[in-house]
Amino acid sequence: xxxxxxxxxPTRSRVLIESEVVAMxxxxxxxxxxFAGFLSAYTIIGSGAPVWPPVGEPELPVGxxxxxxxxxxxxxxxxxxxxxxxxxxxxxVALGLAGVFVVWQVVEAVRLVQAGLTMVSSAHGGFFxxxxxxxxxxxxxxxxxxxxxxxxxxxxxxxxxxxxAVRIFWYFVVGLWPVLYxxxxx
Amino acid sequence: xxxxPSHAHDGHAHAxxxxxDGHGGHHEESWFVHYFWSTDHKMIAKQYLVxxxxxxxxxxxxxxxxxxxLAFPGKPVPGYGLVTGADYNALVTNHGAIMIFWVAMxxxxxxxxxxxxxxxxxxxxxxxxxINRLSYQIFAISAVLVVASFFVQGGAFGGAWTAYPxxxxxxxxxxxxxxxxxxxxxxxxxxxxxxxxxxNFVTTAMNSRAPGMKxxxxxxxxxxxxxxxxxxxxxxxxxxxxxxxxxxDQMIGTGFFDPDRGGDPILWQHLFWFFGHPEVxxxxxxxxxxxxxxxxxxxxxxxFAYKTVLATTFATGLLSFFVWAHHQFIAGIxxxxxxxxxxxxxxxxxxxxxxxFVYIATLYGGSITFSVPMLWALxxxxxxxxxxxxxxxxxxxxxxxxxxxTYFVVAHFHYTFFPxxxxxxxxxxxxxxxxxxxxxMNEAWNKLHFWVTIIGFNGIFLxxxxxxxxxxxxxxxxxxxxPELDTPELQSLRVLATVSLLVMLVIQPVFLINFFYSMxxxxxxxxxxxxANTLEWQAASxxxxxxxxxxxxxxxxxxxxxxxxxxxxxxPQNSPN
Lengths: 186, 577
Ligand code: HEM
Ligand SMILES: [Cu+2]
Fold this sequence. Notes:
The complex is a heterodimer. Chain A is mostly helical. Chain A contains 5 helices and no strands. Chain A has helices at 19-48, 62-82, 87-115, 123-154, 160-184. By secondary structure, chain B is mostly helical. Chain B has 15 helices and no strands. The chains are: A mainly alpha, B mainly alpha. At the A-B interface, α1 and α4 of A face α4, α6, α7 and α8 of B. The structure holds protoporphyrin IX containing FE and copper (II) ion (CU).
């Protein structure tokens, strides 16, 4: 029926920030703390190890991942543009770019597993897949939600507050990645 | 319809009544929809309250079983049977976890937060009612899972509520292959439920306040629940990260916490306590909020230093992120780091002490009524003080080398948690009962229940300070195996603690019966039986769907009692003059 977030209550007082945005900012804050937890765990274990990453493990594909990262970052720009007009087109571009990133992540993971780096091969492998995988899952879920926005937009029912909240989540997914990349790959 | 969230509306008449959102008139609702599929914040609050009380009964039963084993080792416990070591560990572990995650959190934050926030800020529901409903549903599933973990192969997890690896990480050590994972999943789901709830609380308090309600007109109880929610959300991320890693260690054999493969078990302790210490303030703050409402109402005085309380709360919240390693003084952390954490730990008792003084100053010169909620509120301050003071001993890293993992610690945290989770809940329940159900509870029975509970509580935990200081380690299930601790003096203290527990448990049905009986047979309470100022008392008792006939406006702060020149000694927030 209505285009706002399902079940959202109208509020009476004049609000400075839309409720969906407040909610998303709080949620993103929690997510930031989640990844801060992963990263500090990674740092603690890494700095306690004699050699890190352990010798004999396959090299991480630093270069190709950098290219894929560029695609992800550009998708962030596209999502930003989608908020300003030509929403359908820019969302399509963003989803395409994000798709490049996620597909590369999967290809990379398959290759690394074949080369012998797995969740259980060492603490380093466990961290690599947990951190990068957690990010990839976030990217995937966000892509599904963005697709939902695209679909709603084509039917003319995308609520501005909800869309803003979704964009914020995507900025989080994009902005988080360089930090993870620097910590895990470099 | 494109009704934007900022669109003003009056009354709840056109507030988005979908066929499915449970907001239809009561006549259309089936029984199921009304009780189990409602999005009404008051119904969700009651769901949380009843579930929390039920889990409280389970947690109390566990305590009964393991206390009986400690007092009468090796004897079959009536109503349970013989307690094995594995049983004992599972019972202690889940007693702690249930009391914190499935009693204190749902009752103090979720039930009262849901009930009070919309009513106290003068709106008709949460901003995201469906997310709210989802929050309870996830919580209910988590509660079922944790109870179910007692019935799986190998039994329930027994590695303590803190779940330290390596014990918790490997089935070879814990001997509970299914129980440990089920427990962890239940805890994780519970966090998701509170995350959803917390987002709702903060957003609602920010965006849905009655016109005229400025930041410093918000009742302390609402502030406290909101700040607690923020603390929870700021601290829970690292624990979820740790919980995932632990789950991977358990289920697919990663080595995050396994030193043999480059992992580190102490890492878990950091992730756990980075959450764990703020968590104690997450439950403390709401209880502090209830006490503030109660003591102002029953001493007919303005809150002393309202703004100071808020500033103190923020300071405490911030500081609570820098004390976690006081749980690891003997875990092998660098002694220089231990010094730093000693200082922060002792520092954090300053704002807490200050809050107690502020509350006492509020009482000073007031015209005090010793009603049942007031008794609970005063007991809260007195008992909690003892918990805080003993914390200072533990916070001194030198002393803690001796006290760590003794019953002294157990007594310390029960003198904090019991006032919070039990006394605070009873305070809140007896104070808001007339609002929730429109009737009074029987006061005489409630007073009896109060005194027996308080005496029982002190009878349990005062002796445990002594046994702890005498060296009783907290993870022993049969002291007859330890000749130096198996002395008649220490054993008689253990028996005293257990007998006190029995006394305390025996009186609880009095409250429960009173609670349910009074819903139907209690004396009718009007809208504002305590003559209080905050907005929930200006709605009918119990408030109908939509809460207020016309949504209120606010003209003043919440604690304008005994204002000179007025006929009445109270001044509701929404009364224009
Ligand atoms: C006044 C400030 C407080 C101080 C200085 C303090 C200090 C401490 C210290 C140093 C310990 C570690 C003892 C050890 O394991 O050797 C401890 C344990 C504990 N404290 Fe407090 N505390 C304070 C308030 C609280 C509050 C408000 C709560 C609960 C709401 C609480 C709950 C606990 C719990 C649950 C434990 C034991 C955890 C476990 O090992 O199972 N404390 N406290
Ligand atoms: Cu602590």
